[in-house]
Amino acid sequence: MATERGQVIESFGTVNKTVGTLFQYVLLAATLFGLVTLGILLVFVANDAIQPLTADPGWHLTFFVTLVVPTLLVGGFLYVRHSNALTFGATSVGLFVVSLMFSGGVAMVFVDMLSPVTWFGFLLALAIPLAGVVGIERAGRRLPFSAKLVVTTLLFYVPLFGLPGPVGAAAGVPTLVPSVVDLFSSLPVLPVDWVLLSLSLGGIVGVVVGTYARRLGGNRAGVVGGVAALGIVALSAVVGPLAGVDPVPATVIASVAVVPTLAYLAGGAVARPDDRAGLLVPVVMVGGAFLGAFVVEAAGFSGPASWVDWQFLTSAHSRTAVDAGLYPAIGGSILLMITVAVLAFPLGVGAAVYLEEYAPNNRFTRFIDVNISNLAGVPSVVYGLLGLGVFVTYLGQPTGTVAIGGATLGLLILPIVIISSREAIRSVPNDQRQASYGMGATKWQTVRRVVLPRAFPGILTGTILALGRAIGETAPLIMIGAPSVIFSLPTEFSAKASAMPLQVFAWASLFASDDFYTKAVPAGVVVLVSVLLAMNSIAIVLRNKYQTDG
């Protein structure tokens, strides 16, 4: 047995408990140093952006009494008596905050970038082929794979693009059959925008909530939950204007933030009765915030002179820091991330499935493995040069568009998505594969019904973290000629677009002045870091849930 003075053990050498303890504390000190340094940096930037010390002392005292003290008391009580209830309540608050942030981005899309009519027509164009695919699977089990592939391709191509579609347009052939989107948009009478969003977003949320409620309480609970979710979404369009929110944003906020949070609270209270005390956390925090706002308004206390305000989030760039805003850059980042996800996710997951489940173990496969690992560590500016050379110079595409920027950033995170997806697939126990084969399943059936469902949480976690890297990149966008400053939102994938990090870079370089350094730049950094933290929090929650379920 090892002692503090050390003793020699065969194959281990000298074992010394003192050295091990010292190593442990060195690691702890290094971790704390990194966390404290990062915390100081974030506090410094947040102080410049939010300026909390500019508020009246009465403002601080009011919210300390109505919000901070009750929250600490309730949190401390639950931590001592029932820590799981505290976790449940804190998670519900975090879910609402993060989903509210993302609902703002979704509302931006439907207000200024994508018409609800086009969105609803696109959903109809997807529903038709999906119903056809289900029918083929049920009625045409004996059809050969090639016939299924051709029919499925036509089912998706015609409703989405019409005939002859983009292929015919490139050859100069006129449109013979319009797409479902064009047909729906050309109808003489259409419902108003909020009705279309209530039917589409509310319908999707209703199905998800109904499925969740059905698992907890049976068929009746599923129907009640789905109908209630749809009703809340529709009601929000009526209640929203009373609170100063237009019907379209109100519908989006209810669909993305309010209904999911209420479903989580109701489901947790039903499934885990012992954790119901955790409902005190959101009640105390929301009630304290509203009470504090009412008291502050009545007493006339002024809050912080924050640069991160509604004007900053909804305005375009200006030559003065006071009037500068991040709105077009936020919209550009949203479209870029949609493009990156659409390109990198299927390609990365498909490559990971092939390399893990189908590829033979030979020199060529090992050569690919090494190169994928190397590509994951290549500097981002190199991918910018690659995008410039391939998409702009060789293919002759215009510079700085959403499509080119998304494709370049997609190449950047593709190796990361492949590696994380392979690790998730590799973590599925091999016994489950063998059990599937033992029941007569084919390789494809095993991958589709055994491997991918169990690996999906890990795949999704890795993809979200990769998107978090892509949304903060500046060098690739500079290399492909993305504009540093734009004054309007991009409305299509062929439009030029900026992004949040590129706009902050422009404020810190092209418009460098004390005003921008102390006002616009810190505010932009706070918004960008908040988005990154929200994305990473989703990945952390998925990872923890996956580990718990596993």
Fold and architecture overview:
By secondary structure, this protein is mainly alpha-helical. The chain is 75% helix and 1% strand. The protein contains 21 helices and two strands. It has a two-stranded antiparallel sheet. A hairpin with a 3-residue loop joins strand 1 and strand 2. Helix 4 runs antiparallel to helix 5 (145-161). 32% of the residues are buried. The model is unreliable at 1-5 (pLDDT under 50).
Oligomerization state:
single chain
Strand content: under 5%
The radius of gyration over CA amounts to: 27 Å
Helix content: over 70%
State the separation between the terminal residues, measured CA to CA: 35 Å
Question: Biggest sheet: strands, sense, closure?
Answer: 2 strands, antiparallel
Strand order of the largest sheet: 1-2
Mean pLDDT: 86
> Structural class, from helix and strand content?
mainly alpha
